Amino acid sequence: MNKQFFAFVAFTILFACNAYGQSTSYGEVPSVVKNHFSSNHPQSVDVEWKREGEFYRVEFETGTDADYKIWYDSGSNVVRKEAEILPSELPRAIVNTINAQFEGYTIDDVDMITTPQGTTYEVELEALLKKDWEVVFSADGKVLAKVKD
Fold first, then answer.
1. Other CB atoms within 10 Å distance of the CB of residue 143
2. CA-based, 20 to 30 A from 75: which of 5, 55, 103, 131?
3. What does the pLDDT read at residue 110?
4. In a 10 Å sphere around its CB, with 0-12 CB exposed, 13-18 middle and 19+ buried, how is residue 100 labelled?
5. What is the pLDDT of residue 63?
6. CA 68 to CA 70: how far, in whole Å?
7. Domains of the chain
8. Contact, 53 vs 18, CB < 8 A?
9. Helices (DSSP H) in the chain: which residue ranges?
10. Residue 90 has pLDDT above 70, yes or no
11. 137 to 93, 127, 146: CA distances (angstroms)
12. pLDDT at residue 19 in the model
C-alpha cells in the first residue's frame, strides 16, 4: 500500500487517541511555540490552546468563518495543520472522484490536512435517504480511507 496512506493512518490514530486533550493556559505553552504561532498568524482570533500528549494544539479563526488547527511539538515545529476550506477549493481530481464514486452525494464539509508527509482532504458527504460518508482523499483524487458516518 501507499506510504502516504500509512502515514495518514498513523497520524489519525495518534491524534484521535489524544482528541480529548487537556485545555492548556497560554502561560503553559512554550514561548518558542507561542512566538512561532503569533508571528505566522497575527490576525488570528478566538485562539484556544490544548495539550495533546507531547503536542500543543491551537485552534483559531482568522475572521473568515473558517476554523484552523495547528499541532506543534515543543520546539515549535508544525506536525499537523487542519484548515476548513470551501468545496470549491477542492482539487478537480477529488471532485471527479466524488462524482464518479459517490453519485447523489453532496459535499457537506471539507478539511485540508497538511503533515510533513503531504496534504490530504477529509470530506464529509451526505445524501438524502443514504448513509453519510467521511472520506479522505489524496490531492490526486485517490480514496485513502472512508467511513460511514
1. 17
2. 5
3. 97
4. exposed
5. 78
6. 7
7. 3-77 (no CATH), 87-148 (3.10.450.360)
8. yes
9. 3-17, 31-40, 92-101
10. yes
11. 10, 19, 9
12. 45
